[in-house]
Amino acid sequence: MTLRTAAAALALILGIGGAAAQQKLTISVYGISQDSYRKHLYAPFEAQCGCKLVVEVGNSSERLAKLEARKDNPEVDMAVLTDFNALEAAQKGLIDKIDVSKLSNYDKLYDFARDPIGSNYAVGYTFYSTGIIYRTDKVKISSWKDLWKPELKNRLALPNITTSQGPTLLFMVDRSLGGTTPDFAAAINHIGASRKDVVNFYERSAQLTQLFQQDEIWAAVTGRFNWPLVRKLNMPIAWASLSDGESGGMNVMALVKGSKNKELALKFMDYWLSAEVQSKIAADLVDSPANRDAKVSPEAAESLTYGADMAKAIKFLPPQTVIDNRVAWLNGWNEKIAR
Fold first, then answer.
1. Does residue 284 sit in helix, strand or coil?
2. How far is residue 47's CA from residue 161's CA, in Å, rounded to a whole number?
3. How distant, in Å, are the alpha carbons of 86, 176, 184, 325 from that of 181?
4. Residue 208 near residue 230 (C-beta atoms within 8 A)
């Protein structure tokens, strides 16, 4: 045995050069706000567990497709997805049930976040409301029907059906019109008839700040996560208090089937769900906390979907309804609105 090989063998015995032996946890997450996640979540967890996080990013649908493509040889241990993408993953056998007894923060979650897709296949870690923002000096908004006021003709922006806000827009407009069918025919027909009065069916929420700034729109339907950016414009714009409520969506955590690091993944989930981590991420205006004990400043709360009262008022679109009807919604949208 040479001196070099002897040294290498000794290092293995003693555990020296541990980087190669360090346990890795691969997570699949959204690409936004990674600096905040690195600061408040990834780095502290790595320091605590002595492990290394490998982070894959992308939108929810793209990452779901990757999970399916790697089904026989999964590379990801834990994924965060929209609630309806997580339900798809469960139905395709891509994720495992979560042993919630190992999540010390489970009982601190809002009820709707504990088992959002059934059978403990996921836990919600953040949620958001979808509502209406408007120029207070131009129009008054107190219900979804107010979107069609004469003052908003050629002054309105709505989310495209391809965005996460598209289905929730149809959901609430349909309710306001007395719609009774899951294909949201009432909403699609009404928006189709009014489509020429809509300035923009936007695909990126960031477009709204420019549209308001250039005085092209006086009202828009958007997610609460976009509200902090619009508030920074320092214009007379308010988040509407709607008598018929708000819709919303939820992002969830799921345990990938076939993961070789399930125990570590559960520890990471639990750490993410802690009031301490959720409070810090919320303070950066990244995620609205699903942990009831998370605390933020009054100013941050104004920009988030925060607190029991706001959480209670959200009308979530059931994930199975999204899966069952999204093709019909897209077809109806293309036929009546995008034509």
1. coil
2. 42
3. 24, 13, 6, 10
4. yes
* Cα(52)–Cα(6) distance, integer angstroms: 28
Q: Which residue has the tokens 């709360």?
A: 301
How do residues 115-153 score in pLDDT, each as one tens digit? Answer: 999 999 999 999 999 999 999 999 999 999 999 999 999
DSSP, collapsed to helix, strand or coil, labels residue 52 as strand
pTM score? 0.84
Number of H helices, E strands in the chain: 15, 11
Q: Name the pairing type of β-strands 78-82 and 123-135.
A: unpaired
Name the β-bridge partners of 152: none
Two structure tokens written together for 68: 């399916």
Contacts of 50 (CB under 8 A, 6+ apart): 22, 23
Q: What is the DSSP string of 183-247?
A: T-HHHHHHHHHTGGGEEEEESSTTHHHHHHHTTS-SEEEEEGGGHHHHHTT-SSEEE---TT-EE
